[in-house]
Amino acid sequence: MDHKPLHLIAAADRNMGIGISGNLPWSLPNELNYFLSKITTVSDPGKKNLIICGKGSVVKDSLSLPNCYCVVLSRTLCSVPENADYLCRDLPSAIQLASMPPLSEEIETIWVIGGVKPFEEAMKHPNCDRIYLTHIMAEFSCDTFFPKFDWDTFKLLDEFPGVPSDIQEENGIKYKFQVFQKVCKE
Ligand SMILES: NC(=O)c1ccc[n+]([C@@H]2O[C@H](COP(=O)([O-])OP(=O)(O)OC[C@H]3O[C@@H](n4cnc5c(N)ncnc54)[C@H](OP(=O)(O)O)[C@@H]3O)[C@@H](O)[C@H]2O)c1
Question: Which residues, by range, are in coiled-coil regions (predicted)?
Answer without folding.
Answer: none
